[in-house]
Structure formats: C-alpha cells, structure tokens
Amino acid sequence: MRLAELSERSGVPIPTIKYYLRERLLPPGHRISATQAEYGEGHLRRLRLVRALIQVGRMPVATAREVLAAVTDDSLDPHVRLGAAVWAIPHGPEPDGDDPATDTARRTADALLEQLGWRFAQGTGEQSPAYRMVVSGIATMVRLGYPCDVGQLLPYARSAAELAVADLDLVERYERGEEQVEAAVALTVLYEPVLLGLRRLAQAEESNRRFG
Amino acid sequence: MRLAELSERSGVPIPTIKYYLRERLLPPGHRISATQAEYGEGHLRRLRLVRALIQVGRMPVATAREVLAAVTDDSLDPHVRLGAAVWAIPHGPEPDGDDPATDTARRTADALLEQLGWRFAQGTGEQSPAYRMVVSGIATMVRLGYPCDVGQLLPYARSAAELAVADLDLVERYERGEEQVEAAVALTVLYEPVLLGLRRLAQAEESNRRFG
DNA sequence: CTTCCTTGGAGAGTGTCACTATCCAATCAT
DNA sequence: ATGATTGGATAGTGACACTCTCCAAGGAAG
C-alpha cells in the first residue's frame, strides 16, 4: 500500500501522515526504491491509534510518541510494557508544590488509598502520573472551597474500582503481547470520553428523577 | 480589593486577569473612579472557577464564557440553569456523519440507552453534547476494530449511574440557586480528572492482583 | 503643588502546537 | 520520452491562551 492509499483508507490527509512519520509516531514504510515505500495493515492500524490518542485523548505528540514507543518495545515483558505504556499516558497540570491546598490534597489522597488498601497505586518510588492527577484535582477543589474529604471521594473510588475490573476483563480477551498492550492503551484512552459522556447522561437522568 | 490584590490572592497574573475581564469571563469590578475599580470575594471565587474550567477542564475560553453565562443567568429557574450550564460544558470532536462507523456507534448507543431506560439522555429534540460525546467515542473504537457492543458498555453505564448518584448527592448539599449551579459545574468538571486518575490507580491495583 | 507611582484599559505581540503548503529530485506509468 | 506521482525536507498557517507595551487618569509622598 502506498502513502496515497494509506491516506484514503485511514481518512488522514497525506501531509499529516508525512508529519507523523517525521515525528516518529508512525514507523517508516518498507522502502521499495529510492522514492517509494510500501505500507502494510500494521501501519494503517497504528495510524488510527495515533489519531485516537491525539484527537480523542488530546495527547501532545511527544506524549503519544512515548506511549507508542512503550507499546512497541519488544525488549520488555508484556505486563511491564503495559504498565509503561499506561504510565506515560496523560498528566494534565502538575500539582503546585508551593500551595498548601496541595498538601491537604495529598493527605486526603493518601488517606483514601490507605482506606482502600491500594498499595501499588502510588507507584514504585516516585509517584505515578495517575496519583499526581488525583492530587492535583483534589487540590483544585480545595482551593475553590469545596470540602472534598475521604468520605466524599469514597463512592468515586469504588466506582473506579468497578471500572477497572471491566477494563481488565476486556484486556484479558486479547493475547498477551503487543496486541494486548495496544488494546489496553486504546481502551484506557478511548473509554474516557465515553465514560464521561455516560456520566453526564446519567446525571441528566438522575437529576430528572429527583427534580423533574 | 484592587486588581493587584485579586491577582496575589488568586495566584493569577494581572495581565491574565485583564484578559479574562476583556473576554467577559469575569464581571467588571465596581468602578470607584475613572481609573480604579474594586473587586469583591465573588470576583475571587469566580476567577478561581474560571481557572479551573480552563486549566483543569481544558475548556476553550468561548465555552467557559457560555457555561458561566448560564451559571449567572438569574432569569432562569435554577434547575433549568443547571441543565443549561452542564449542557454547554465540553464536547470533543463531533462525530463524523459521513463515516459508517458513526452509524454503528449511534445504533449501539441507542440500544444501550434503551436497555437502561434512559429516556432523557438524548436531550430534547436535538442531541445533547454528552450523547454526541458517547457516539463519537464508540465510533472511534469501532474504527479501530474494537467490538464495543452493548454488553461491553453496560458495566461502564452502570458505574456511570452510580457516579451520577454520588454527584447529585453532593449537589443537593447546596442551597438551590447560583451557589448550587456553580457547585454542579465545578463538581462535574473537577471530578473528571480525579475520576480518571482513580480509574488508572484502580487499574494498576487490579492488574497487580491478576498478573502481579 | 508637584513629582512619581500605580491603576485599569486597549491593542498588538508571543509561544506553542498540530497541522499544511510548497518544492524538489527520483522514479513510475504510458 | 514525458508527464504524473512518490517520498522527503523546509517553511508557513491558524487557533488559542496568554503576555507585553503603552497610555491617560488618579492617588500618594514630600
């Protein structure tokens, strides 16, 4: 398959594909001659994943590159690779270390994880992006004057635990290996908007039930 | 309080506050003289909310303006206002109408809502942003070759329903009125990163339990 | 009073980042 | 042979959230 066909079948404009190639989000095609390269189904698949990460996951190009590098790194054990890929995924704004609200948030988060018995959640040694994400979110709420204590967060954490079970069930449908890692990344990222959308719909439904 | 003090207490640079004033994200201060204006606690509160919407919610300025306009619109009934504010909130990429994957996604979403009995979820007349968000997310997964049928989505929808109950419980702690609408907006937006972060942490925990 | 500093406001400029337009020489199709 | 197409490199575009610079009108210190 040539660049033009890759573009047609993926719906991504040719210059954009060239850009992704340049940024090493997409591996180069198999060179046929000095001016032609051949692309396979793997490229098509990878290209769609890239688009999903960038457009749906709103991920910066540099971050997407890291995630994809982890997905493809054959030198790692699949389980480790999965961890590395998901580890690289998001990370909004970093928690502001100078802010007392951040300290409060950190204590709340730690208490919550303690109560849930999530010992691996903070990551090994340094703190995981997910942990920082939670802390920074709580800190923002504290700053705005919303209480946001452990009791308030618990139902959210319990729902998150259910979600994780559903996630892992889906991931286990795939063969261990690159395919599974790719599925994990895709499902983690792509279910986010779906989940948030469903939450909004459920809110509307619940709101109507109570006040309607 | 003068602009300088507002800036110090909020941590937002003066030029940025001026920018928000220009963009009508922040109501103008009470003019004391031709060159001076006084700002109150309400301004500080609003300013922090603006930052939260833009930086945490990654919301474009224009969208934030709409949301805030709905929050402040005294001519509307609080319940309607709440709906209007949340309605305006985000909405990543629009579903691509020309794509067969979008049709599949729409059917899946409709079947899911049918099965759940969520009748208000699609919005009145036109489709709600949340519904479009869900459709576009499902379509992306279909395009990537992930099955994503009703059975697969159901556990997510059930968790979303639990989340909505928790959300509405929190919102009901506040007095009906602007305060409540503001709380609803803040909680909807600010709990998103927390929720997604908790999901990642729970995934790590669950993954460790299964493969660790 | 006068001199200096600060204030709020307005317009233009900056940085970032994902993408796109333009060229170019080599090569393929006819 | 010859015109179109390909992949690759370089530079440009557009959107957007700020941020800089200037200005005239007040206020404050001497």
UniProtKB/TrEMBL annotation, chains A, B:
The keyword Transport does not apply. SMART domains: HTH_MERR. Gene3D superfamilies: 1.10.1660.10. Keywords: DNA-binding. PANTHER family: HTH-TYPE TRANSCRIPTIONAL REGULATOR ADHR, REDOX-CYCLING DRUG-SENSING TRANSCRIPTIONAL ACTIVATOR SOXR. PROSITE patterns: HTH_MERR_2. One of its GO terms (molecular function) is DNA binding. It comes from Streptomyces wuyuanensis. The keyword Transmembrane helix does not apply. Residues 1-70 form the HTH merR-type domain. Pfam families: MerR_1. This is MerR HTH family regulatory protein.
